[in-house]
Amino acid sequence: MQCECSMLSREERSRGMMACGEDCLNRLLMIECSSRCLNEGYCSNRRFQMKQHADFEVILTEDKGWGLRAARDLIPNTFVLEYCGEVLDHKEFKTRVKKYASMKNIHYYFMALKNNEIIDATLKGNCSRFMNHSCEPNCETQKWTVNGQLRVGFFTSKTVTAGTELTFDYQFQR
Fold first, then answer.
1. Is 11 helix (H, G, I), strand (E, B) or coil?
2. Are 13 and 91 in a shared domain?
3. Which of 10, 75, 98, 157 is at a distance of 20 to 30 A from 88, taking alpha carbons?
């Protein structure tokens, strides 16, 4: 979807201004601008496509295994990282759960994408799968449409200081 943001002038671009900010209609609808955005390289609403994620470190925690922590201070609504993996239908998801259980896996890396689509980051994923659960998280998941595809990303939900573990609420129900 083409955004309705006005094109930046040469003067604005030379001052380092970025377009498609908080008032961009696409951004408000959680749709990333495409490469056809009038502001091209000055569009700030292409974070997934341009891999404009936060600086973070993979850490080994004392009691939760691997985790992620902020390498710099982060402001609210900072794009931390995309959750990547294999997209499974519900039938394949059930098969994988049984397979991983029979292999005595103690960590599961599943996340719902749509009603009948689940992302499995166990074998094909990135380090976003190491973000741990907290009942008082500092990140949240957001579903964005990027070039017509639904994608999931972690975004900070509050200010996070450098060195703080990045967490989200799994909303796990038994």
1. helix
2. no
3. 157
Q: Where in the sequence is the domain holding 67, given as residue range(s)? A: 52-168
pLDDT score at 172 = 63
- pLDDT of 126-136, one tens digit each? 999 999 999 99
Domain count, the chain: 2
Based on the domain organization, do 81 and 141 belong to the same domain?
yes
- 32-56 tens-digit pLDDT: 999 999 998 999 999 999 999 999 9
Cβ-based burial of 86 (10 A; exposed 0-12, middle 13-18, buried ≥19): middle
| Angstrom distance (rounded) from CA 153 to CA 161 | 20
What dihedral do alpha carbons 118, 173, 139, 55 form, nearest 10°? -50
Indicate whether 91 belongs to any domain: yes
Q: Give dist(CA 53, CA 14) in Å, integer.
A: 24
The one-letter amino acid code at 65 reads G
Is residue 173's pLDDT more than 60? Answer: no
Show the beta-strand stretches assigned E in the chain: 56-60, 66-70, 79-83, 86-88, 110-114, 117-120, 132-133, 139-146, 149-156, 165-168
Residue-wise pLDDT tens digits, 135-149: 999 999 999 999 999
Sign of CA dihedral 19, 25, 26, 29: positive
